[in-house]
Write a structure and sequence with these properties.
Blueprint lengths: L5 H18 L1 E6 L4 H17 L3 E5 L16 H5 L9 E5 L7 E5 L4 H12 L1 E2 L4 E2 L3 H5 L1
Length: 140
């Protein structure tokens, strides 16, 4: 998707993701014994590293994985953000100024799904490489 508009469009979108990463973080909930989590974790980590998103990772069973060896084990963090999922992997967008986390997806996602969901949540138009007013910007 990112290359759809050539190098200039790609660079604009990369810049928009970098800007969004300064205002939002990702909250990742997993279990160490979940096969879907094991497949999704490296995809998420690669995306976050490429775009500068910080990830708060929380393990429901208190155990880490190869990609997230030192998870948060305090489930109260999830309860406070209204983000205690029934299905993992679960991914949420968080804004430090807002108490509620915004669900991005449950279950395994590929990198294209992940990119599109985060872009939509933060108001990035992947076709044009422009940022639009998102629901989150209205809350600022």
């Amino acid at each position: 998707t990112l290359w759809a508009n050539g190098k200039d469009g790609y660079d604009r979108i990369q810049q928009k993701f970098a800007e969004a990463a300064t205002r939002h973080g990702l909250l990742y909930v997993f279990r160490s014994d979940c096969p879907y989590c094991k497949k999704f974790s490296p995809v998420l980590k690669l995306f976050a590293n490429a775009h500068g998103f910080s990830i708060i990772n929380v393990s429901l069973d208190g155990q880490g994985t190869q990609d997230f060896p030192n998870p948060v084990k305090d489930l109260n963090l999830l309860k406070r953000r209204n983000a205690l999922p029934e299905v993992v992997p679960a991914l949420y967008l968080i804004d430090p100024k807002e108490p509620q986390a915004q669900a991005l997806g449950f279950g395994i996602m590929n990198s294209k799904d992940l990119e599109e969901r985060i872009a939509e949540a933060v108001g990035i138009n992947l076709q044009q490489g422009t940022i639009t007013a998102s629901k989150l910007d209205v809350l600022d």
